Amino acid sequence: MRLYQGIRSLILTLFRKILFLWVRTDVSGNSIEALGLSPEKPVCYVLQYSSLSSRLVLEQEVIRANLPGATTSLPVKNGPSHSFFFLYRRVGRSFRKRQAPVPTPEFQALVRYGLENPEKDVQIVPVSLFWGRSPDKEKSLVKLLLSDTWSVAGRLQKFLIILVHGRNTYVQFNKPFPLKQIIEEYRHSEERANRKLARILRTHFRKVRQAVLGPDLSHRRTLVEGLVRTQAVKEAIRETAVKEDIAPEKVRARAYKYADEIAASMSIVTIRIFEVLLAWLWNRIYKGIAVNNIRVAKETAQNNTVIYVPCHRSHIDYLLLSYVLYKNGLMPPHIAAGINLNMPILGPILRRGGAFFMRRSFRDNPLYSTVFNEYMHVMFTRGYSVEYFVEGGRSRTGRMLQPRPGMLAMTVRSFLRDHRKPIVFVPVYIGYEKVMEGRSYLGELRGKKKQKESVFGLAKSARNLGSSFGKVALNFGEAIHLSEVLDDVRDSWRDEAYSSEYRPAWLNEAVGELSQRVASSINASVAVNPIGMIATVLLGAERLAMDEGQLVRLADQYGDLLKAFPYADTVTLPEGSGKDWVTYCESMGLVSRQPQKLGDIIGLEGSNAILMTYYRNNIQHLFALPALVASLFENKSSLARERIVHLAGVAYPYIQSELFLKYQPEEAEAVINQWIDVLVEQGLLVAQENDRIARPEEGTEAMLRLRILSRFIIQTVERYHIALGILRKNGSGTITAAELEEQCTLLAERMSILFGLNAPEFFDKSLFRNFIANMQKNGVITTDDNELLCYGEGLDEVADDARLVLSVEKRQAIQQVTMLGV
């Protein structure tokens, strides 16, 4: 018997070595730490389908990863001579065998062992294997034959699949299931214990397969034709035909054209080509891609329709997220792309990569709106993963933009219509050390007209590929379940009756709450990098320059501040020290060095002074509350703690709305108190008797740190002060919100020029609009029947509080510019 086992093992080893002369694998989860294996308990691997090639791949990867051996016998009487089994076995005659969910002898022996030895446990590790990870394709019989899909391949088909896709094999080890826990309740029924374990494993493999391959893809033409045949589109066709007095057939042809213009045509061949090209591209222009918290995407994709909602900083965002998901064993999402990207050459390629195209506005085109809504509903209900940018466009300032409600409202309405498939949002922060479009953003912020995308513009951008853009980070935030958001807004939403439009009276409230959670979750996943840290410190210096030694110390100290009171578990901080960060920024050409005998001076020159505000703005929200507390000591040497909390609390709702801070207003008091304690511990503030807090003595290093920290937020408060001053000058009931917004923008732009403010967002019209809207929301101002803004004494209190934050110099500067006499 031993001789037979030895010969058999030798033959299998020979087959494995021959197989891996051709096969190349990409593996995830193959470590004891990732799996969380206990060394005291035996391990048994389980594969879904019976296959010699799958067994050989498993054995090879177990050996490579130093995992407990798949060829080691389990302590199971009459059980397998190896520590793995197949969930399904082949049944039928020799040449017509098929895979079926029939328990294998090894499976049954393992369950029997667990029942007979209740004190023993076995760690069952499911292993999924995909030859090429190809979803069903729509036209090619050859592709269907040679793709690893939802269907099970026969022996000849598997041989051909290995020949074609063997060099693109994906293996995923998953966390173990405890045998003891699974069969605990069926100690007296082996049959029921068998069924339970088999059901759990079948469900697990199905979820992993959907996460990796995506749902079964329909023929695109069938999908497009199906959209036109839906009841909603039929009704829209009828109404359009009557309204425009044209034949229904012509309107139906127009609807078909809309559907064809919108629908993606995802091709696994295109995705694989993208994978190769993008791997080359990233290695050429980036020094590395850091991926954090990817487990959220992997876990969420198994049971839900996933909507990836990244921040939008660059056109590269589209490609980068899909690439990272694919490399981590997840199907790339269908991506909402602006119709402007549906240009010759590029458009068809993006469509095959998963992009579906949408027009910028379709409010006045009900037929197009209906077709697009139906397309999105199909995506959601069939379980396709989708990606869209809630900001609408790319941020030119580095800040998170106010979310636009369109796609979010569409998603909520679809879910109200059919909520059998859960929808979960996965926020993604994409952080660049040097954004590719940085220089063009500078031009647009200075008033240059935004360039329309074109093939020629794309070719022009390709010239940048010889440049280095540093590192890039993708941080996945915590998942947001749409059902939980709706529960918080309207706990009876499941039981309500809806009109055909699915627009309940509380829809706007639900979309508003959802948009705030998405935006704040993205910001709570920020990747702090050396560029952002050095930009933050240098932009806090009066002359945008600093002694190198002092800059290094301040950078380290502000880094320590972030560590002392972490904003969120999903925030990542840069490695190294302040000295390393300065050197790195210099190597990237973003700071200049002026040698000097008493110590080199590091500064920002020319366009870099403005460009670095972009990177400062990426992380500004992390310092918002400590900077706000620090700013209260511009005019006061000491304050009662209660007064500090009150003043910061008054400003908090406006700063929260602008910077998408994660703390709710009712949490602000506790968080502000925590920051006061941290600032005292760090030596930036001094605790006195009678619960008073004082600033450090003038001329000390600690006072310099406090003053620079306050400048991280001071321009935001100045902007509020401008708005309040203009409103009070005009008087209650004399100016509309639009007029106030326009005057604020003009005066802020003028102040920026006169006083050399380098922050382009200082005169951003949308930020004034948001501040005015929040004052209305908080009841500080109201609107009369003529749309004029009215206010009472509450506004004066807010204005007086704002003045306390500003230095005398700043108050006089604003007074001079606005000529308000505030």
UniProtKB/TrEMBL annotation:
Pfam families, A to Z: Acyltransferase, GPAT_C
Known pathway: Phospholipid metabolism; CDP-diacylglycerol biosynthesis; CDP-diacylglycerol from sn-glycerol 3-phosphate: step 1/3; Lipid metabolism
Alphabetized InterPro entries for the sequence: GPAT/DHAPAT, GPAT/DHAPAT_C, GPAT/DHAPAT_LPLAT, GPAT_PlsB, Plipid/glycerol_acylTrfase
Protein location: Cell membrane
Catalytic activity: sn-glycerol 3-phosphate + an acyl-CoA = a 1-acyl-sn-glycero-3-phosphate + CoA
GO molecular function, one term: glycerol-3-phosphate O-acyltransferase activity
Domain Phospholipid/glycerol acyltransferase: 306-433
Keywords: Acyltransferase, Cell membrane, Lipid biosynthesis, Lipid metabolism, Membrane, Phospholipid biosynthesis, Phospholipid metabolism, Transferase
Protein name according to UniProt: Glycerol-3-phosphate acyltransferase
The organism of origin for this protein: Marinobacter xiaoshiensis
Lineage of the species this protein comes from: Bacteria, Pseudomonadati, Pseudomonadota, Gammaproteobacteria, Pseudomonadales
Gene that specifies this protein: plsB
